[in-house]
Amino acid sequence: MKQFSPSCERNQEPILAVLREIFTAPGLVLEIGSGSGQHAVHFARALPHLAWQPTDIAENLPSIAAWRAEAGLPNLREPLALDLFADDWPVKQTRAVVCINTIHIVSWQGVERLFAGAGRVLAPGGILYVYGPYRYADRPLEPSNEDFDRWLKARDPVSGVRLFEDVNRLAGQNGLLLAGDRAMPANNRSIWWQKG
Ligand SMILES: C[S@@+](CC[C@H](N)C(=O)[O-])C[C@H]1O[C@@H](n2cnc3c(N)ncnc32)[C@H](O)[C@@H]1O
C-alpha cells in the first residue's frame, strides 16, 4: 500500500526549513494533494506544534494511511478525501494550506479551485504555501523546467508549469497577499500568501 516518491526524499528537508520559518504558531495545516504521504509524516514529525491534515483524491488515501499508521504520530490526522473539483471541502477552517507539486499537475480550473478554496477556509492571517516550478514574466524558464513542462503537457495537455503572475493574480482575487517567494533547489520555488 505504501507508495514511495524519490522526489519527496529530495525536497522534504529544504521545504521543512521554510515551513519551520513560516509556521511558528500552533494550528491546523490542511495539505492538498498529499500524494504518497511521505511529506505528511516528515513534516508532522518535525513540527509537533502543528496538527497535520493530509488529503488527496480517494485513490491515494491508502498510501497516506499506511505511512501514517507506521509513523504513529499524535499530530498526524487520518487522511481525508479532498478533490479540488468537489464543491464541499472536508475542512472548513484552518490556519494553513500546503500544496506541494500539484499546481502544475491539475488543470488551470483546478488551480482556480485551490485558490478559491484556500481563500474560503483560511482564517484571517492564515497562510497558503505552495512548492514547485514556476515561470516568471521577466525571465526565461530554466532549461530543466522547459523540459519538465514539455513532459507534463505530453502526458496531459491540461498540466504545465504555471506563470507566477497568473497565480499571484488569482491569490489576490481570493484575498491572499504575497508574503514570500524563495528559490529552492532544482529550480523550484517556495511561494506563500497570507489571508488579510
Ligand atoms: C505530483 S503529485 C504531488 C504529490 C505530493 N504533494 C508530492 O509532492 O509528492 C500531484 C498530486 O496531486 C493530486 N491531485 C490530482 N488531481 C487532484 C484533484 N483534483 N484534487 C486534489 N488533488 C489532486 C494527485 O493525486 C497527486 O497526489
Automatic annotation (TrEMBL):
Offer one example of a GO biological process linked to this entry: methylation
Q: What molecular function terms (GO) are annotated for this protein?
A: methyltransferase activity
Task: Return the SUPFAM superfamilies for the record.
Answer: S-adenosyl-L-methionine-dependent methyltransferases
Sorted alphabetically, which Pfam families does this protein's record hold? DUF938 (PF06080)
Q: What keywords are annotated for this sequence in UniProt?
A: Methyltransferase, Transferase
Q: Which residues form a coiled coil?
A: none
* Record-given protein name: Methylase
Q: What is the lineage of its organism?
A: Bacteria, Pseudomonadati, Pseudomonadota, Gammaproteobacteria, Acidiferrobacterales
